[in-house]
Design goal:
The protein is mainly α and about 250 residues long. The protein has eleven helices and no strands. The two termini are about 20 Å apart.
Length: about 250
Amino acid sequence: MTWLITHNEFKRVWYSSIAWVLFSIALFVLGLLLLVLLNNFYSDVQAKLVSLKHAPGLTDLVIAPYLFWVAVVGVFIVPLFAVRSCTEERLQGADLLLSSAPISNVQIVLGKFFALTLFAFIYTAVCSSLALALGYFTALDYGKIAAACLGVFLYISSFCAAAIFVAHLTRTPIIATAAILGLLLVLVMLYMSGSATSSSSELFLYLSNFPHLADMLTGSIDTTHIAYFLLFTLLFLCLSVRNLNRRYCF
């Protein structure tokens, strides 16, 4: 049943025009950004790296910043589909039909999460292919790129779990969208507060998802970062199931 919910949720978004419009805009903006980074590298940066013995290359100075912006744009676009999947469903009363079906709330939440995760994977793969195309012209560090792509995917998909929880709390799409963006802002504030010189805090840095993404963009696959994203995802999935159990008294 989880697969059926995933398939249905994926089709609902895949066949909607808003998904294609958002993905097209994202690819256009990210493509322009990649061209700007390439032009800056070849016109300004490359000449300064000639004298350095262990100078960073195209992977570190172009592809890593590009993938950072892929993650930033993706975390704004993909989780917002949770509003269509959860909030609008509750607004139209379709959630009552789904809750009366012979399926558990765990299967409902997992089905919606896997659908968003599939979108996050497609988005990451398509956007990463723009950077990988540079490998036809120059040598790239594919190990670092793979680690960075994994970090981008985990970063977006983990926040999708948080977006599902937030989207289940209200039946108003605008409020749900604002709350999701507000949660993202809270994570940014944790990072800024934790990295401030006067009041640095290791706890705030660990709680924010930005430092974990930043380390993986450098090519570092640390179990600490992977565990963070998995625990972040599990926490909000459990909260979503608990919220549905409380609402429908199952």
